[in-house]
From TrEMBL, chain A:
Residues 11-28 have a biased composition (Acidic residues). It comes from the Eukaryota. Its main location: nucleus. It comes from Sitophilus oryzae. Part of the small subunit (SSU) processome, first precursor of the small eukaryotic ribosomal subunit. During the assembly of the SSU processome in the nucleolus, many ribosome biogenesis factors, an RNA chaperone and ribosomal proteins associate with the nascent pre-rRNA and work in concert to generate RNA folding, modifications, rearrangements and cleavage as well as targeted degradation of pre-ribosomal RNA by the RNA exosome. The gene is LOC115882593. InterPro entries: NOL6/Upt22 (IPR005554), Nrap_D1 (IPR035082), Nrap_D2 (IPR035367), Nrap_D3 (IPR035368), Nrap_D4 (IPR035369), Nrap_D5 (IPR035370), Nrap_D6 (IPR035371). This is Nucleolar protein 6.
UniProtKB/TrEMBL annotation, chain B:
One of its GO terms (molecular function) is RNA binding. PROSITE patterns: RRM (PS50102). Pfam families: RRM_1, RRP7. Gene3D superfamilies: 3.30.70.330, 6.10.250.1770. One of its GO terms (biological process) is rRNA processing. This is Ribosomal RNA-processing protein 7 homolog A. Residues 44-121 form the RRM domain. It comes from Sitophilus oryzae (Rice weevil). It comes from the Eukaryota. Keywords: Coiled coil, RNA-binding. SUPFAM superfamilies: RNA-binding domain, RBD. InterPro entries: Nucleotide-bd_a/b_plait_sf (IPR012677), RBD_domain_sf (IPR035979), RRM_dom (IPR000504), RRP7 (IPR040446), RRP7_C (IPR024326).
């Protein structure tokens, strides 16, 4: 709206500035007609020195005079706009999303344009083919039975026969010993996307339609596969006589009855040609192939074991008909398409864009896919129905396509290009789920389209539209430039390739078989999908099959690979009860029982009704997610005895700590976090209820645990720790001796912040405020102990409360303290408030962080896989030795949150695993150099705010931190990424993500098997030093998943005792060690460690530190003098590492 | 062996304890600066640089005791500005009781203690943990003593703030019937803004035609700016080869 307003203003400005009483005719792209303008007043006031001949120049000249010329650059901005420029600007606002989008489209179109060199070489090849076809040798009177290998090689004919027999075998049978009279074709014609200028390059795939001579065919050939067989041999005939570098037969759109010849005519691998063979125009009557006709009367397909031949004779063979109808109508249809698209350049560009969009989503792969031809069909349909026109921009074409597909239920509304009567349309509607009737009215372009794939496409269109309306700048990127491989699009992937050829899994009756004759193998897969759909019922949104078909001579079974992708419905996917029909509905109930076998049970529900149902017993969220797996295993393994591979939740295993047995059911991290949150709420209520001198107005969480993002949330447990190493002092356990043989297990404190009501009585002195704060904590501690007998401990900065087996650490936030820290008096006596690193840190950690944690918690409630997904990311990164110092936990949380909040490239991630994989994809492609990351919780930042912040980022992008995260809570200052991650770490993460993702994709798509633990164990190559630690002094050793030596620890349930001692809190020697190393040596070396129980630290010398320097006081640190030059004293520093980590360090390995 | 010298510094090999197998290079010289500081008296002060991060005052005192009594050890405040390249190596001034000790120390080529008096590693961390556990009574006592001092200070301050001073000037405070403005930067900024806004309000924006024209030109300039910005972005993306779809 804002943009439109600006434009109208511009229009009216035209009026004002037009000083000469002239009328201007300006044809507008938006369709506005003539604008007549006149302002006599102005013309009087101004002298008419500017009555140049050129009308448009006159119009704006006065403005340039008004504006003072300051410098050249500015002058450029203020120069009077030309008409083209004005039009261009207007057009951008009206016809495109925004400037950036328009420019990006232009770039992409440039990238996918076809090089003229390639186009020329194709044309010259076509000319030679034309000649070759003219001179084709003729072979008359060749019958099918003649085709067998023979030793005669005397004539051309013999060689030809021999070649056919040895190279090819036709796996389509027919009823007659057909006579093949090979002669040159009647017509040759280019068609398809390339011919319409709509093929997205840079590769070319041209299609050629070659018409068989009339003599070759017989009027009754449409019966019993005769045409198909003849067509096959004609293709071979052509293949044998056309020159090309590589030739092979493949299927048109994976359609097993429609083989085509694919050629690579020259050495250029990016140039391909597909040759189609069709009957001459008008040879067969199109009505022969309507979906009520039967054209196969003998059982010629051994895959479809039809028992009753009469059934076959009386059933319309709809798919068989469609396959032939495709050929029959091909030339008419493609002519039609060509004329409709003629000179519609923007529409052609739109088609290119849509093809790119489709390809990136891989929905055009396999049998039954939504192919480019269907995109073309819909565009043609929209053009014919006048919903698109020549003047629309490519952006509008694309947008209209998406909005049409997403808003039309194509399974209910059949489309038709011609004026075909309702009856025919109805006829098609009855036989096919989706109808795209072509201009001849006898071929359904969507005959082979899978209904589920169509649904998915329609959902994708809806998502794309949402994307366009989202003002974020990278919508173009995710729509057109991001490749979304199959394994990233679905929550569940089932691979049933191993059990191919598929046994019949369901009883299909003869009439069904007859209907789909020719496609029996695919029908089997269809029925398998039906079974899965029934079993998963409302749990899924989409189930998308990807059936890849391959034509090979030896193997008659054409299906090479079958993958099923499933999008879960996050609301219903993990229901632990599958409610069946009511018990009173006997027949339905019986069916349900039969389907579910031993799993069903009759149940009475709370509302009093009785149903058959399947109940899955679960006690954790992970177990709930496992229900999907359970169902699939039951259906596929037990019911259908199929072998299959499932890619669903394997990675969740790495979130489970098998070495620690919790006293309550714990799966992935959700249960642990929930327990902490519940207990913290309980304790919070108690604390708020205390009668304090200042009342507590808020208690907010600071730890990751409070937003479900902690990998290993602390476990509430009994803490009766007794060891000779420890003693008790004032309710706290402390170390007894200096020589200990083991360190107690790590206990993480759950950090929270306390807010107090406002008071003006705080002292005006920093030290004073701090002391009063401590007094306040002492007061809480005392009251907790007196009233509830809850033990706690106060230090100067915080209060540790031991409650129900957990430690809660409370920190007091007093704004006055920060104000006093900032306070400074300038020379003139004016009081200033100056931000410093310290004050910023306090504000960040105690004021902004809790808000973000709260928002993230809200996100978890909205998207249940957010927390565990983030935990998986964290676990992966930390296992790759990238720890908190390199990229902080909160940064990871925010990164992943941005995916859930803003990335509508995918449907919602329903499992931690898919959320993890999508994160990998995101981080491997995210252009942090070019744009900030926006995490706009609850859309608190307005469009204008965001634009402001983003342009600020653009201006300063050289000087600010490499990763910039805009949230609503820190005024766009990106406080959390100030110190980390560095550019180097971001690049490292990008590389790691890339490799991990590629391996994962390969394992799914190529079925390669490899050990997943590899992802979660570090590669120790490349470090200069490796510090090996003593595991017994690593308090987090139990969190290490790759080290199998550690024994399982069983934690006991918490029991309240009279005398309780506070355990060791947050005591981790390894953390202390790293802190010291980084504090003292971060300019010299970089340290890498896996916080989750890693027993090694990788050390890398920083390149600047290794440089040899002249002697200067600034350079002496850590160096030694060799030949009057300073070099890094590696030996001594290595020894320092021993000294600083005394007892903890086992040994230090020097690598080469 | 006389040892190496460079830029007036003498190179001294330093061994942390008898178990050490390698050594750091310490660079020492007599402290001499034109500006004299009381705590670093000339002629008795030794300047030592490149001291490993874990070395403490106690350690240094003990280390230099072999040359004579050490009066004090003063570490120089590290320069924390260069955050990225920061390291913990220290510079320090060792003040001896007598000049002869200083001269003795300048002759040395090798330094080190048999046994280190400082705790590092696990023992240090355990000690720190134990120290962090404090009795609440002790904490409270500390606070009380501070607050007493603080209260006294406040009282004396309040006494000093007489309303009318000896020469007859009245001090304007925030309290009272006619309080003055607080002298804060934020207050000044606010005042400035207020005057700006009020002067803006008086201004007529759509009065002269040139104003209208200018505002329209501004619109166009904005559009152009957006366009230029977008162009820049796309150029950056093109540079990083982002437009290859597959």
């Amino acid at each position: 709206m804002v943009l439109i307003d600006k434009l109208t203003e511009m229009d009216s400005w035209d009026e004002d500035s037009d000083e000469n009483d002239l009328s201007i005719e300006e044809p507008d792209t938006t369709g506005k007609s003539i604008v007549k303008l006149s302002t006599p007043k102005q013309s009087k006031r101004k002298n008419s020195d500017s009555n140049n001949t050129k009308l448009k120049k006159v119009k704006y000249e006065s403005i340039s005079q008004d504006i003072p010329k300051k410098n050249k650059n500015k002058d450029d901005m203020y120069k009077p706009p030309t008409v083209e420029e004005l039009n261009n600007l207007k057009e951008t606002e009206n016809l495109y999303n925004n400037n950036l989008f328009r420019l990006q489209i232009a770039e992409l179109v440039k990238e996918i344009s076809i090089k003229s060199k390639r186009r020329k070489s194709l044309n010259s090849w076509l000319r030679t083919v034309n000649e070759e076809l003219e001179n084709l040798p003729e072979f008359k009177e060749l019958s099918l039975s003649d085709i067998k290998p023979s030793k005669k090689k005397s004539s051309k004919r013999d060689i030809f026969i021999n070649n056919i027999a040895s190279k090819y075998s036709c796996n389509i049978k027919t009823d007659q010993n057909l006579v093949l009279k090979f002669s040159k074709p009647t017509n040759i014609q280019s068609f398809g996307l390339k011919e319409c200028n709509s093929y997205p390059g840079p590769n070319i795939e041209a299609s050629i339609n070659i018409k068989m001579p009339k003599l070759y065919l017989n009027v009754k050939d449409f019966l019993n596969n005769r045409y198909l067989v003849k067509r096959f041999y004609y293709l071979i005939y052509l293949a044998e006589h056309i020159t090309g570098v590589r030739k092979q037969l493949c299927y048109h759109e994976n359609n097993i009855l429609l083989p085509v010849l694919e050629m690579q005519p020259t050495k250029d691998e990016k140039l391909k040609v597909k040759i189609y063979v069709t009957p001459p125009e008008g040879y067969f009557k199109p009505s022969r192939f309507l979906p009520n006709m039967n054209n196969v009367r003998i059982n010629l397909f051994d895959k479809s074991r039809i028992e009753d031949i009469t059934v076959l004779k009386n059933t319309p063979t709809i798919l068989y008909n469609s396959a032939i109808a495709h050929d029959v109508t091909l030339s008419t249809y493609s002519e039609f398409v060509k004329t409709v698209l003629h000179e519609h350049y923007n529409v052609q560009e739109g088609i290119k864009l849509l093809c790119v969009w489709l390809k990136q989503r891989e929905l055009n792969i396999g049998y039954g896919a939504f192919t480019e031809n269907l995109v073309l069909y819909i565009i043609i349909y929209l053009l014919v129905k006048k919903k698109l026109n020549k003047l629309m921009s490519s952006y509008q074409v694309v947008r209209n396509f998406w909005s049409f597909v997403s808003s039309t239920d194509l399974s209910k509304n059949p489309l038709s290009l011609g004026n075909c009567d309702k009856q025919t349309l109805e006829l098609f509607k009855q036989s096919f789920s989706i109808v795209f009737l072509d201009c001849t009215g006898s071929f359904n372009a969507a005959a082979f389209l899978n209904e589920d794939i169509m649904k998915k496409v329609s959902a994708e269109c809806e998502m794309a539209l949402k994307h366009l309306d989202n003002p974020r700048t990278d919508s173009f990127h995710s729509l057109f430039l991001t490749k979304l491989s199959f394994n990233l699009q679905y929550d569940v992937i089932i691979n049933i390739t191993e059990s191919l050829p598929l046994k019949e899994c369901l009883i299909i009756d003869d009439s069904d078989r007859a209907k789909y004759v020719g496609y029996g193998t695919l029908q089997n897969i269809g029925s398998l999908i039906k079974v899965i759909k029934r079993g998963l019922n409302k749990r899924i949104l989409h189930i998308v099959p990807r059936i890849e078909v391959q034509l090979s001579e030896e193997n008659t079974y054409p299906i090479k690979k079958v993958l099923l992708g499933i999008n879960l419905n996050s609301e219903t996917a993990f229901n632990f009860i599958e409610k069946g029909p009511s018990l009173s509905d006997h027949s339905e109930a019986e069916k349900f029982r039969q389907f579910w076998g031993y799993l069903f049970s009759d149940r009475r529900f709370r509302d009093g009704s009785a149903h058959v149902a399947v109940y899955f017993k679960t006690n954790t969220i992970r177990a709930k997610r496992n229900i999907i797996k359970q169902i699939l295993q039951f259906l596929l393994t037990e019911k259908l005895q199929l072998k299959f591979r499932l890619y669903y939740n394997e990675l969740e295993d790495f979130l489970i700590n098998k070495k620690i047995k919790a006293p309550y059911p714990v799966g992935t991290n959700e249960e642990g976090c929930l327990k902490v949150i519940n207990l913290s709420d309980e304790l919070g209520q108690k604390i708020r209820g205390l009668q304090m001198s200042l009342s507590i107005t808020g208690i907010l969480g600071l730890s990751d645990t409070f937003c479900y993002c902690n990998v290993y949330p602390p476990i509430a447990r009994d803490n009766d720790y007794k060891s000779k190493n420890c003693k008790v002092q004032e309710n706290s356990i402390i170390f007894n001796t200096e020589n200990v043989d083991e360190i107690p297990q790590y206990v993480q404190a759950n950090q929270l912040v306390l807010y107090l009501e406002h008071s003006s009585k705080w002292p005006n002195n920093l030290e004073g405020v701090r002391h009063i704060k401590t007094t306040f904590l002492l007061e809480i501690s005392k009251k907790l102990s007196e009233i509830y007998n809850i033990k706690s401990r106060v230090t100067k900065n915080h209060l540790d409360v031991f409650y129900e087996g957990l430690i809660f650490r409370y920190i007091l936030y007093v704004p006055k303290e920060v104000a006093l820290m900032k306070k400074a008096t300038s020379d003139s006596g004016v009081v200033k408030y100056v931000e410093s690193q310290n004050t910023l840190n306090i504000e960040r950690d105690l004021n902004i962080l809790p808000k973000i944690i709260g928002a993230l918690k809200g996100l978890q409630l909205q998207f249940p896989s957010f927390g565990s997904g983030t935990a998986l990311i964290k676990k992966w990164l930390r296992c790759q030795l990238i720890d908190e110092f390199h990229i902080s936990d909160i940064t990871i949380n925010l990164l992943n949150a941005s995916l859930f909040l803003h990335n509508s490239t995918y449907s919602e991630s329903c499992t931690p695993q898919i959320s993890f994989l999508r994160f990998l994809k995101f981080i491997s492609e995210f252009q942090w150099e070019l744009q900030p990351l926006v995490v706009n919780f609850n859309d608190e930042l307005s469009k204008e705010d965001l634009a402001d912040l983003e342009s600020k980022f653009q201006q300063h992008s050289d000087t600010i931190q490499p990763l910039y995260i805009i949230t609503p809570y820190d005024q766009g200052a990106s406080l959390f990424t100030k110190e980390s991650p560095t550019r180097e770490i971001l690049i490292r993460i990008r590389q790691l993500a890339n490799i991990t993702l590629n391996l994962m994709s390969e394992s799914v798509i190529e079925q390669k098997f490899f050990d997943l633990t590899g992802f979660f164990s570090p590669n120790m190559d490349g470090y200069n030093l490796i510090i090996h630690l003593n595991p017994q002094f690593n308090s987090r050793r139990h969190e290490n998943t790759s080290d199998l030596n550690e024994q399982q620890v069983i934690l006991e349930k918490y029991v309240k005792r009279d005398i309780e001692n506070i355990p060791f809190v947050e005591f981790s020697p390894v953390d202390e060690y790293l802190k010291e190393l980084r504090n003292n040596y971060r300019g010299i070396a970089t340290f890498f460690h896996n916080i989750y129980g890693g027993n090694c630290i990788g050390v890398l010398w920083n390149p600047p530190a290794l440089e040899t320097k002249e002697f200067k006081v600034n350079y002496v640190n850590g160096r030694k003098l060799v030949d009057d030059k300073l070099v890094l004293n590696i030996e001594a520093i290595t020894e320092d590492l021993y000294i600083l980590g005394k007892d903890l360090v086992k040994w230090i390995e020097r690598t080469k | 062996m006389t040892g190496k010298n460079i830029n007036n510094f003498k190179v001294v090999k330093f061994k942390y304890s008898k178990e050490s197998s390698s050594s750091h290079n310490l660079f020492i010289k007599e402290h001499s600066l034109r500006v004299q500081e009381d705590d670093k008296p000339p002629g008795r002060t030794l300047f030592v640089i490149n001291i490993p991060p874990y070395i403490t005052e106690v350690y240094l005192k003990k280390l230099f005791l072999q040359f004579g009594n050490v009066t004090s050890v003063i570490f120089q405040e590290p320069n924390t500005e260069d955050h990225k390249n920061y390291n913990g190596f220290k510079k320090c001034y060792v003040v001896f009781a007598s000049r002869s000790s200083l001269l003795k120390s300048l002759k040395i080529t090798c330094l080190g203690l048999e046994e280190s008096p400082i705790k590092t590693g696990l023992q240090k961390w355990m000690q720190e943990y134990n120290d962090s556990v404090v009795k609440p009574e002790i904490l409270q006592a500390e606070i009380n003593s501070f607050m007493k001092k603080y209260d006294k200070l406040e009282e004396s301050k309040a006494k000093n703030q007489e309303e009318v001073d000896k020469e007859g000037w009245t001090v304007v405070t925030k309290k009272g019937r006619n309080p003055g403005l607080a002298r804060k930067e934020s207050v000044e900024i606010k005042l400035n803004e207020k005057t700006k806004i009020s002067s803006k309000k008086k201004e007529l924006k759509n009065f002269y035609t040139f104003q209208i024209r200018e505002s329209k030109m501004k619109n166009i300039v904005q559009l152009r700016k957006n366009y230029e910005e977008a162009k820049k972005k796309v150029a950056l993306m093109r540079a990083s080869r982002k437009f290859k779809p597959y």
